[in-house]
Design a protein that fits this description.
The complex is a heterodimer of chains A (279) and B (159). The radius of gyration of chain A is 24 Å and the shape is globular. Chain A is α+β, with helices and mostly antiparallel strands and 279 residues long. The longest helix of chain A has 39 residues, at 67-105. In chain A, 34% of the residues lie in helices and 27% in strands. Chain A is built from three helices and twelve strands. In chain A, the strands form two sheets. A six-stranded antiparallel beta barrel of chain A has the order 1-2-5-4-3-12. A six-stranded antiparallel β-barrel of chain A has the order 6-7-8-11-10-9. Chain B has one domain (5-22, 30-153). Chain B has 159 residues and is an all-alpha fold. Chain B contains eight helices and no strands. Classes of the chains: A alpha+beta (279), B mainly alpha (159). Chain A binds chain B through residues 8, 11-12, 14-15, 18-19, 21-26, 29, 32, 35-36, 39-40, 42-43, 46-47, 49-51, 53-54, 122-129, 131, 133, 159-160, 167, 174-175, 195, and chain B through 14, 17-24, 29, 32, 52-54, 56-57, 60-62, 64-73, 75-76, 79-80, 83, 86-87, 115-116, 119, 123-126, 128, 131.
C-alpha cells in the first residue's frame, strides 16, 4: 500500500527539481552560449528536413523558368550592372579621398571588410521573436553579435550560432536596439524594435531635436556592433504630444524585413587601437 | 522487428519537431497545432515509466534550441504542463478520446498562456493575432495523433 504514495511523492519532487533546473538555465542564459551551439548543431538537421519541401519547390520553380523570362532577367541585370559599376568607379575615387582626409585628421581608416552571402532557411521560429535562420555557421566564421545586412540596409545581428546555421535577430524585434545617426545633420539617435516588421521607434528624442519626416538614418557605429554608415531606416511620422518631454517618432526600416532571402554577413575590420592621451 | 524503445519514442519526437517548424502558408500558420506538446503529452500518458519528467525537459530544451527562445523557457512550460499529465495519467487514460482532446486543448491553452505571459513580462511583446487558434487545432488534431501514436506503440510493442 505504501509504494504508490512513495512514487507519487517522488514524481512531485522530480518535477519540482527540473522546474528549478530550467529557471537556473534561464537565469544563466549568457553563460549557456557554448551549450547552445551544441544544441543548435544537434537540431539543425531537423531544420534542414523541415525546410526541404519548400526549398525544393523554390528551386524547381527557378529551374523550370521560361527562356524568354531568363533572357529578360539577364538583360535587366546587365543594365543594372552597368549603372552600378559606373557608380562604383566614382565611389572608389571618393573612398580613396576619404581615407586620405581621415589619415590627415589622424582618425582610424575603415578598410574593406570581409563579406559572405547567406541564404535564409525557410523554417518557423518562436512566434514572439522576429528572427530568421541562415545557412552559415561557425564553420564559416560566423560569430555572435555579427552585423547582418541586405542590399537595402541593415537587417539585424547574429544572436545564436551553430556549426552549420545561425540565427539572425531582426532590428524590428522587441529586444533589439540600434544606435543611429541622422544622415542629414549627424544627430545621434537610438531606434527600438517594436515587434512590427515595418516600424521602429526612436527613443528619448527631445522635441527640439532636428528630425524631419523623410530623413535617412544610418548606423552610427557607436555601439561597437555595427560598422558606421549603413542605412537603417527612414523617418515616417513625428508626433508631438503637449504633455510629454519627448516626441514620438516612428521610422520604417529600409531593408525589406518581410521578404528577405539572401543576406550579407560582414566582418568588422580589425582597426588598430588608437588611444588618445598615450604617447 | 524490435527496435530500442527509446529510439522509436525519440523518432516521433523528432517528427513532431519537424512539423512544429515546417513552413506553412500564412492563413494556416496560426492554426498550427502544438505538435511537440501533444506528442509529449501522449508519451507521458501512455508510458510514464519510460518517458518521465527528464525526457519532457529535454523536449522543451530541444524546442528552445530550434526556436531560438531563451534556453530553459519552453523546458519550464513543458514541465508545468506535462507535470499535470504525469500526476494524472491514470485518470487521463480512462477518458474517451474526445474528452481527452478537450483536456489537451486546456493544457495547450495553459502552455500558450504562460509562454505569452513570460514573453510579456521580459520582452514587453504584444499579443499576436490568432495566437490562441492553435488551441482549437490541437483539440481537433488530438484524436488523430492519439490513434497514430497508439498504432506506433502497439506495432513496435512499446511497453
Amino acid at each position: 500500500m505504501k509504494e504508490p504514495f512513495v512514487r507519487r511523492y517522488r514524481t512531485r519532487i522530480r518535477i519540482f527539481m527540473f522546474a528549478i533546473l530550467s529557471v537556473v538555465l534561464l537565469l544563466s542564459t549568457d553563460k549557456m552560449a557554448p551549450v547552445r551551439v551544441y544544441l543548435m548543431t544537434l537540431v539543425s538537421p531537423l531544420q534542414f528536413i523541415a525546410s526541404g519541401p519548400l526549398t525544393l519547390l523554390d528551386n524547381s520553380s527557378e529551374y523550370f523558368k521560361f527562356r524568354a523570362t531568363l533572357l529578360e532577367d539577364n538583360a535587366n541585370l546587365k543594365l543594372q550592372q552597368l549603372v552600378l559599376s559606373n557608380r562604383l568607379l566614382k565611389l572608389e575615387h571618393l573612398e580613396k579621398e576619404n581615407q586620405r582626409l581621415n589619415a590627415l585628421l589622424g582618425s582610424q581608416v575603415n578598410a574593406n571588410s570581409k563579406k559572405l552571402i547567406a541564404r535564409v532557411k525557410i523554417v518557423d521560429s518562436d512566434p514572439f521573436k522576429l528572427q530568421v535562420n541562415i545557412d552559415k555557421g561557425t564553420q564559416h566564421g560566423v560569430f555572435v553579435g555579427q552585423p547582418v545586412i541586405d542590399e537595402h540596409g541593415v537587417v539585424g545581428q547574429i544572436t545564436q550560432v551553430s556549426q552549420f546555421s545561425s540565427t539572425v535577430l531582426l532590428i524590428a524585434d522587441n529586444s533589439h536596439v540600434i544606435p543611429l545617426r541622422n544622415n542629414r545633420n549627424d544627430v545621434r539617435l537610438i531606434a527600438l524594435g517594436k515587434g512590427d516588421l515595418h516600424q521602429l521607434e526612436l527613443q528619448f528624442v527631445t522635441k527640439n531635436t532636428d528630425v524631419k519626416v523623410g530623413d535617412l538614418l544610418v548606423t552610427s557605429g557607436l555601439g561597437g556592433h555595427f560598422p558606421e554608415g549603413y542605412p537603417v531606416a527612414n523617418v515616417v511620422a513625428i508626433e508631438n504630444l503637449g504633455n510629454e518631454i519627448y516626441s514620438k517618432i516612428r521610422v520604417k526600416p529600409v531593408a525589406k524585413l518581410d521578404r528577405i532571402r539572401y543576406l550579407l554577413l560582414i566582418w568588422p575590420t580589425k582597426s588598430p587601437e588608437t588611444s588618445i592621451g598615450d604617447n | 522487428m524490435r527496435m530500442p524503445i527509446s529510439f522509436i519514442i525519440w523518432l516521433t519526437i523528432g517528427c513532431a519537431l519537424v512539423l512544429q517548424i515546417m513552413p506553412m502558408p500564412l492563413f494556416a500558420d496560426s492554426f498550427r497545432p502544438n505538435w511537440l506538446l501533444m506528442t509529449t503529452i501522449y508519451w507521458c500518458m501512455a508510458l510514464p515509466h519510460r518517458f518521465n519528467i527528464a525526457s519532457v525537459w529535454c523536449c522543451g530544451l530541444l524546442l528552445d534550441a530550434i526556436w531560438g527562445t531563451n534556453l530553459g523557457a519552453n523546458a519550464l512550460f513543458f514541465i508545468v504542463v506535462c507535470g499535470l499529465v504525469l500526476k494524472n495519467y491514470q485518470r487521463l487514460r480512462s477518458y474517451s478520446v474526445w474528452h481527452q482532446a478537450l483536456l489537451v486543448g486546456m493544457l495547450s491553452f495553459i502552455y500558450q498562456l504562460i509562454s505569452y505571459l513570460f514573453q510579456r513580462f521580459f520582452y514587453d511583446v504584444s499579443l499576436i493575432d490568432g495566437y490562441y487558434f492553435s488551441v482549437f487545432s490541437s483539440i481537433v488534431f488530438w484524436p488523430w495523433l492519439f490513434f497514430l501514436l497508439r498504432k506506433v506503440r502497439l506495432h513496435f510493442y512499446l511497453t
